[in-house]
Structure formats: structure tokens, C-alpha cells
Amino acid sequence: MEKGKISSLQMGMIMYLTIMSTAILTVPGITAKYAKQDLWLSPIWASLVGFMTLFIVMRLSKNYPQQSFFQICEHTAGLYIGKLVGFIYVCFLAYVTGQIIRSYADFILTVYLPQTPISVIVISMTVLAALTVIGGLEVIGRVSQIFFPIFFFSIFIIIILLIPKLNLSYLLPIMEDGILPSLKGAIIPQIWFGEFFLIIFLFPFLSDQSKGRKWGMITIFMVLFTFVTANLIVLFILGQNIAGTLYPFLKATLFVNIGDFIENMDPLIIALWILGSFVKITVFYYVTALGIGQWLNLTDYKPIVWPLGILIVQLSFWSLPNLMVINHHDETVNPFLGLLMQTLIPLLLLGISSIKKKVKPVKI
């Protein structure tokens, strides 16, 4: 179904952009509601979900080499239950793709194009993502390879420019109320670390599968480092004002002012959000289209890309009517739904697979 190949390095770039593009702007504000000045610790606890998810998908890929996730479901749970689980995952991936597009559109409306109809933003991004998905995995890998250095180095250039404005006293007191607040704060970022589950869809198409685990681990550490650094910068700039701020990292960039010459960096953040969100939307769109094709045992996923795009556009409006509902879902529904779908069910499949390998049929 997919003839293209990508390297493990490209896979790491895809996953980094997929996770950090949306997390760096929205997650610190939600995390600070629970962790307060300990919000920089929360990604450390949340990364444990990422490491566990990576271990699970790598073990499943090793147990069932060159098999799709939906084939793994059928091998472990049986044909009918496996098909049912596969259908649930197709619905989950389509829903998440619609949510990501809606979050992107709401951000653009809020900070950049308030008079533009939201349907224009949603449809234009969906069409652009659909064209990339039709291009295949190699195109997505090359796009990520171009965007990754732009995204990564721009973020850290902004962080360096903010150094003169930092107030380190906002960090104290560390763990004033113990470890519990930072653990509560980890509930939200673990959703993004759980997205390493997507590797199970990319792994069969790696040209160097032996390096998949290595680059997966490196990517988790890079995501963790970026998370912690961004949270610390936002904390040192905004202090206790982070909690409840919709886009705290964007707000922090407004403090960049070097000699009244280098300032107004927020357009750069908006550009980075657009680049990163494009990659994330494309990856989820691709995985959803590929998943539907594999679930239906089609020979090609491309004929369903455009009909799926229409469904995703509709889901972005039906399931998430406004920004308030999106934020409510991020704090209440998505942490548990994401953990269940991205980590716990694959863990259950791995457990069933391990039991089947140990239990040998008795010869009569």
C-alpha cells in the first residue's frame, strides 16, 4: 500500500514536529494550573509514558515484523475483535485529526486573522495536507526534514533572546507542596508523549529499522528537553501569571527587546506554529488514511484521501464547536482517552501477544 521509505532520522524529525508544534504553545498554561512553579517538573514525569509507549510499539513491531497495527490487532485479539478494535482506532485517529485542525484554526483566528471565516482556514489546511498525504510517506519525511531545523533552532534563538528578561526567583520554592502538584501537571503533557504510538504505523516503512529504537529514544529526550526548557522560560518570564494563559509561550516572546532593534518576535512564533501544525495534521491525516486502507484490506489508500478530508473537516466543526470546548476536552477527556488508546490498549495487545508466544499447543 505504501511503497515509499523513510530513514529512522526522518521518523524522529516527524515525531518531534508532530509533538512539539502544538505542545509548546498550549501545554505550559494548562500544566501551570496544577503544578504552578513546578510546571517544569511535569514533563519529566510525563515522559515516562513516552518511554513506555515506545517500548510497547517496538516490542509489537518486533513480534510482528512488517505487519500493520491493524494486522497485529487481528493476530492478537482474533479476526472479529481485531476488526472492532481497528474500527475504534480509525474513529479515534479521524477525531484527533479534526481536533488538531480545529485547534490550529482557532489559534490563527485568535491571534492573526480574527475577521476570516474559520471554514476558510480549516479547508485550506485540509486541502494542503491532503495533497501531501497523496504524495506519500517519503514526501512527509522530506517536508519534516526541511521544517525541523527551522522549527528547532528558531525556538532556541527566541529562548536565547529572552535570557536578559529572566527572573530566576519565580522558580522558588521548588516542590513547596510536595511532588503531587507536578504529578497532576503531568496528566496533560502525557497526551503528547503518548503520541509516540504513531511510530507503529511508520516503523514498517523504515529503510533502517535497526536504528528505529535509537532514534525513537533520542526524539523522546529532545522533546523532553524542549518541554522543560520552554516551561522554565515561560515561568521565568511570566511567573504565577502563566496559569490560565491561553498561549503563554507566545506571550513570553512579546518580552523580546534587544536594544529596541530586535523585538516583536510573535510573527515568528505564528509562522513556526503554522509549519509545525502542518506537519502534525499531515501525519495524523496520513496515518488515518493508511489505517482505513489497511483495515479494509485495500490495495491503495489514496482514493479515500479526499472523502476522508471531507469527514475530517466536518468533525472539526461537529465535535468541537468552540475554543472553550477544546480546552475543556484537553483537560478532562483527552488525558484519559489518549492514555487508553495510545498506551494501555497497545500494552494489552503486547500482553496477549506475549502469552500466546509462551503457551504452546499441546500435541496429542
Please give a structural write-up.
With 364 residues, this protein is mainly alpha-helical. The protein is 73% helix and 1% strand. It is built from 15 helices and 2 strands. A two-stranded antiparallel ribbon has the order 1-2. β1 and β2 form a beta hairpin. α1 (8-35) packs across α6 (137-162), α4 (79-111) packs antiparallel against α12 (266-295) and α5 (118-135) runs antiparallel to α13. It is globular, with a radius of gyration of 21 Å. The two termini are 41 Å apart.
Can you give me a brief rundown of this structure?
The protein is mainly α and 364 residues long. It is built from 15 helices and two strands.
Describe this protein with a few key phrases.
single chain; about 375 residues; mainly alpha
